[in-house]
Amino acid sequence: MRTLLGVSALMLFGLSAIAEEKQVEAKVSPETVRLDAISKQLVELSAALQSADAVNRLRRLENEVLNLKDSIARLESSFNSIKTDDRRSYYSSLAPASGSVIAAKPVPVTGIVGTLKLVNSFTQNATVSLNGRPYALLAGQTVTVPGMPAGDFTYEVSVEGLGVIQPTLVRKLAASEIFTVFIYPR
User: Fold this and answer.
1) CATH classification number, 100-183, choose in 1.10.10.10, 3.40.50.80, 2.60.40.1120, 3.20.20.140
2) Is residue 60 within a helix (H) or strand (E), and if so which, with residue range?
3) What does DSSP assign to residue 176?
4) Average pLDDT of 88-105?
5) Beta-ladder partners of 117
6) What does the DSSP 8-state code read for residue 175?
7) Which one, of 148, 152, 155, lies nearest residue 176 by Cα?
8) Tell me, what's the pLDDT at 130?
9) What span, in angstroms and rounded, lies between the C-alpha atoms of 148 and 181?
10) Nearest CA to 127 among 93, 170, 171, 164?
11) What is the pLDDT of residue 145?
12) Contact, 127 vs 183, CB < 8 A?
């Protein structure tokens, strides 16, 4: 019986030691679990930040590519419209209709010359006849006619849908002068 008591005492002692170890593990275990969870969250957050940064960079690149595609499409459209527009020649610039454009057929230079500038601030297309030669202007367009001989010249202005809004006038162009004809609603 003594042996049995000794064995049971040993078992109790062993069980209490195991129970104490489990209590120590139980005390350490929640803290360790928390630290492990926090460590895992930090690793996940770091990976998420890196992927978010990569996604932002990809979005920026995608926006740049889309902007470049739009620019290319606009350039192609402008090029095709200039290429097919009979009113323009090699003197035309790539400026938009509201920009300044050199005339398609400049007057031949003979002696002392000046320049005529035709400015259409009308919302409709107009035609200016300079010495009997018509110059078509789109709404908002400016056309420069270089090489006009100095001296008297005539011009008449007509607007699409309205007819002649400025009857024929005679004006004098001085050498090296820039004479501007404004086309505006009257």
Assistant:
1) 2.60.40.1120
2) helix 2-84
3) T
4) 51
5) 144, 180
6) T
7) 148
8) 95
9) 14
10) 164
11) 92
12) no
